[in-house]
Design brief:
153 residues; alpha+beta; Muramoyl-pentapeptide Carboxypeptidase, domain 2; 5-stranded mixed beta sheet; 5 helices; 12% strand
């Protein structure tokens, strides 16, 4: 029988407590841990070629944590007089999927690295959210999208 272990490494450089840090008392399923491990193994290849640490800013989320994230985003948008964005209830970050990760990218260097070799996404069978929508981070997923670089909504 599967028992989640928040103390184990999922890959050489990514630890389960980094990816599953926003779950509270919820535990991911064996399938969710497998999905996350497959995703992060692909990200290891990017990390190796990029030759810099990749820091996870968002991994697996509960539904309530996901709503909180979008409430914060929309509060900032509304304060600036901008339209709110829809809450992504079907996000690939959700605990039932665990097929997406966000990496901190404050200077855009990870984005630029990926853009310098766009075939890396195809080789690794990864999809990237359009960076116009992800200022300060890079969103990668193993969930199939219509394009390698996709628009979130």
């Amino acid at each position: 029988m599967f028992k989640f272990n928040n103390q184990r490494k999922l890959t050489k450089h990514f630890h389960s407590r980094e990816y599953f840090n926003n779950l509270g008392s919820e535990e991911p399923s064996e399938e969710a841990v497998w999905n996350a491990t497959q995703l992060l193994l692909k990200c290891e290849s990017i990390r190796s070629a990029f030759d810099k640490p990749l820091v996870i800013s968002s991994g697996c989320r509960t539904y309530s944590h996901n709503i909180q994230i979008y409430q914060k985003i929309n509060d900032k948008k509304i304060a600036k007089g901008k339209d709110p964005v829809p809450i992504a209830f079907g996000t690939d970050h959700i605990i039932s999927k665990c097929k997406a990760v966000d990496f901190k990218d404050p200077d855009g260097s990870l984005r630029d690295f990926i853009f310098s070799d766009l075939l890396i996404l195809s080789r690794l069978d990864l999809y990237m959210e359009n960076p116009d929508y992800t200022k300060g981070w890079v969103h990668l997923t193993t969930a199939k999208k219509s394009m390698r670089i996709f628009r979130p909504y």
